[in-house]
Amino acid sequence: MLKNFIFGKRPHAEAGQTCGRRDCACTGLWGKVCDIPGGIYLPGIGEPPSLTIQDWPDYQGPLYLPLATGRTEPMVPIVQPRQPVKQGELLARDDFGHFLYAPRCGVIAEQTTKTVFGHTEQPVLALQTSADATCDVAGANPLADTVNPWQAKTDAERYDLTCQSLARTGIMIGDHGETLIDLIKRAHDHAVAVVVANAVPVEPTLNGPLAVLQEHSPEVFAGLSILKTLLRAPQALAAHSYHFPIDCATAEQWNVRCVAVTEKYPQGLPGVLLRSLNKSPRYCLKRNGAAYIFDPQTLRAVERAVLGGSLLLERIVTVAGDGVLQPGHFRVPVGLPLRALLERAGLTDDWRCVVEGASLTGRSIDPDQAVVSARSGNFMVIRNFKPVRPERCIRCGWCIMDCPAGLDPARLSTVAEMGQYRTASSLNIEACMECGICSYICPSGLPIMESIRMMKRRLHPVARTEGGPLYA
Ligand code: SF4
Ligand code: SF4
Question: I want to staple 444 with a disulfide (CB 3.0 to 4.6 A). Which of 77, 391, 436, 463 is the partner?
């Protein structure tokens, strides 16, 4: 009980709470809401932003467009310095299906480096505002000449046209720069059981996916339905926090079922969400094939490309934390300098740390060097940052109790520090999803997740499967 009080666990008195919308398909008692073993209710840093997305049309400064994709060599620019470009014009590409389009019109400036998606000194193409008054008038839409797939006569033709539209957008998924069209091709080799729209906030203050789903629900559900068809999945689910009911009537029109899940951390991580859905007898995902989980922004981009015939040149980014006065969700062009965005959100004078991603797992970055990329989602600005001094493990067992993967983090971190690779492997270290709960919850302030993460990086992938040496 004491631990629950200290770390903000939700008291069981709330069991039996309903979803909040009587006509919502996901309405039900607590027992029907998907949940995970372990996990914690994070208290949240600062006020959660409202679900309204704010536009910012008057930013006139330079944009720094990332050329790095995270997977291969950077894209190669096909424009020259001082060349005027239109909105939507192709600026750079590579042989792996990645494309860079101009988020707005302007003049190409020099190539430089910035921090992109937590990686420092990545090449970017600078785009200056143009003094030419006619610049804004006509954009260059690369999808303008594509045929609407719904005009196709056969399913095969419709499939090809849809893939063509997606291939020309170069939508990237995940952290490694894989394109969506590559994923669709890869999925042809195996059965797919379900596609899922993941609108579960990773932390209470990082509710950006819900904001996108609330404001653009028809596009998101349409995008999910398109991917369900392309991946030949028998069912499509929209997972959302039970506190935030979504437009399930629209979802049903697109054959998407709503699923309410608890707000426990790290329920919003894709692997954990899948585990949570698997536990429900209503979905039985594991038995039928693979599951693919997409964030609402990707699904909206799919809908725009396939049904709207246009590119999604903006990014909806959440700025939260106690270091900003007006946390919120902002619709901004890709390439926006992070400092400008944070100042728009009311950056305080006494902020201590800016984190890209969630507060327990994200990376600390320099806001003067970082830019918004096509994969940026959340930025946390933290004011009350207190470094802790690690002490000895007191064997309280809290880390074991709350680990959502059912591991023994205390033992794992001990064997990691002692370099016992084989023991770590036998303790199923690979199942750790690096959620950070163990480090957060530890009363001795031990950096448990960091030790485990380091050990995982050193384990050799071949050794794990073929019995060779266990470290690189
Ligand atoms: S970081 Fe890994 S070991 Fe620690 S709580 Fe999360 S899953 Fe468990
Ligand atoms: S590592 Fe920390 S949380 Fe885990 S048993 Fe030891 S003191 Fe407790």
Answer: 391
Cα distance between residue 103 and residue 312, in whole Å? 9
| pLDDT classification of 287: cutoffs 50, 70, 90 | low
CB of residue 38 inside a 6 A radius of ligand 1: no
Mean pLDDT of 375-398: 88
The residues pairing with 66 across neighbouring beta strands, listed in sequence order, are 124
Residue nearest to atom 1 of ligand 2 (CA): 410
Distance separating alpha carbons of residues 456 and 425, to the nearest angstrom: 9
- pLDDT value of position 452: 92
* Topology of the domain covering 63-128: OB fold (Dihydrolipoamide Acetyltransferase, E2P) (2.40.50)
Strand 328-333 and strand 378-382: pairing?
Answer: unpaired
Nearest residue by C-alpha to atom 6 in ligand 1: 435
| C-alpha to C-alpha distance for 210 and 199, rounded to whole angstroms | 5
Name every protein residue with a CB atom under 6 angstroms from any ligand 2 atom: 393-399, 410, 441-444, 446, 448
Confidence of residue 379 (pLDDT cuts 50, 70, 90): very high
Nearest ligand to residue 438 Cα: 1
Architecture of domain 314-382 in this structure:
Roll (3.10)
Q: Distance between CA 100 and CA 64 in Å, rounded? A: 12
CA of 170 to the centre of ligand 1 (A): 33
Top-confidence residue, 91 or 14: 91
433 lines ligand 1 (CB under 6 A): yes
406 CA from centroid of ligand 1 (Å): 8
CA distances from 90 to 321, 329, 335, 407, 454 (A): 36, 27, 15, 48, 40
Is the pLDDT reported for residue 24 higher than 70?
no
Q: If you compute the radius of gyration of the chain from its CA atoms, what whole number of angstroms results? A: 23
Using an 8 Å Cβ cutoff, are 327 and 345 in contact? yes
**pTM score, whole prediction:** 0.85
From-to residues of CATH 3.40.50 in the chain: 149-306
Give the mean pLDDT of 119-143.
75
What is the chain's mean pLDDT, rounded?
Answer: 82
Residue pLDDT, tens place only, 224-273: 999 999 999 988 999 988 877 788 889 999 999 988 888 888 888 888 88
- Nearest 5°: phi and psi at 347? -60, 130
Report how far ligand 1's centroid is from the alpha carbon of 378 (Å): 21
The response to whether residue 106 sits with its C-beta less than 6 Å from ligand 1 reads: no
CA distance 74 to 88: 20
Give the fold, CATH level 3, of 149-306.
Rossmann fold (3.40.50)
Length in residues, the chain: 472
Structure tokens given for 292: 């693919």
